[in-house]
Amino acid sequence: QEQLVESGGGLVQPGGSLRLSCAASGSIFSFNAMGWYRQAPGKQREWIASITSGGSTNYADSVKGRFTISRDNTKNTVYLQMNSLKPEDTAVYLCYGRVSVVAPLYWGQGTQVTVSS
Question: Which one, of 51, 44, 49, 80, lies nearest residue 62 by Cα?
Answer without folding.
Answer: 49
